[in-house]
Design goal:
mainly alpha, single chain, 2 domains, Arc Repressor Mutant, subunit A, Rna Polymerase Sigma Factor, Chain: A, elongated, 232 residues
Length: 232
């Protein structure tokens, strides 16, 4: 059973309209390409990365189609905001294109893009960090928690719980927040998360443990988790 604080985050979902629009567009583009060029051979990431590094725009279109969804999911978990994640995903690909000459072929294309996305998320968090804003967010969260049992509907409650969790995450030091987010929310394995953050698995475990302690204490103080010893 997942830890209580993990239950605060609603599942990532793409709206039906967005998905249908994207899938319709991709299906049409694929059909038009086949009609004009014939079926194309499958391209591995190594070859695709080399073509992208050389500035091949068709390769970049394929990189986008192949990796967008996973990067969006990563950024959604890192920021807690789908709209922000979509914007940062676009910036990630733009930055990747601009810095393509620095791509190292011995690193996987997926890992390179994930690293750029992580840096974009870091910039986002740092731009919104200030003591006054943080306190204002937590005051709003406390007001929601104090609203009591005149509870809103389930979907609204899920959104408020997610807002609470990300308000608490905003108070964590960056290393603890990132470790908790990529391992516990994004769901990367220990090895994957450690590689992304460029730390050892042992260091990752320490950071996650500290993050859990901070988050648990904050959620109990705000009334979103029962206090230790069973008191509410």
């Amino acid at each position: 059973m997942p830890a209580p604080h993990l239950q605060l985050l609603p599942p990532l979902r793409e709206t039906r309209e967005t998905r249908e629009t994207r899938e319709t567009r991709e299906t049409r583009e694929t059909r038009e390409t086949r009609e004009t060029r014939g079926p194309a051979p499958a391209t591995g990431d190594d070859e695709l990365a080399q073509r992208a590094r050389d500035g091949d725009l068709s390769a970049w279109a394929e990189v986008y189609a192949r990796h967008y969804d996973k990067l969006l999911r990563q950024l959604r978990h890192l920021t807690g905001d789908l709209a922000v994640a979509e914007e940062l995903a676009q910036e990630t690909f733009a930055q990747a294109m601009a810095s393509r000459a620095r791509y190292e072929p011995d690193r996987s294309l997926e890992a390179w893009l994930a690293g750029i996305a992580l840096n974009m998320a870091r910039k986002h968090w740092r731009s919104r960090q200030s003591t006054r804003k943080a306190h204002a967010r937590l005051e709003c969260v406390t007001a929601v928690a104090d609203a009591g049992p005149a509870a809103p509907d389930r979907l609204h409650l899920q959104r408020e719980r997610s807002r609470v969790l990300y308000a608490v995450l905003a108070e964590l030091p960056e290393p603890l927040r990132e470790a908790f987010t990529v391992r516990e929310l994004q769901g990367l394995s220990t090895d994957e998360a450690a590689r992304l953050l460029e730390i050892s698995p042992g260091n990752l475990a320490v950071r996650i443990s500290r993050a859990r302690a901070h988050i648990g204490a904050a959620l109990r103080a705000l009334g979103w988790l029962p206090r230790e010893g069973g008191a509410s």
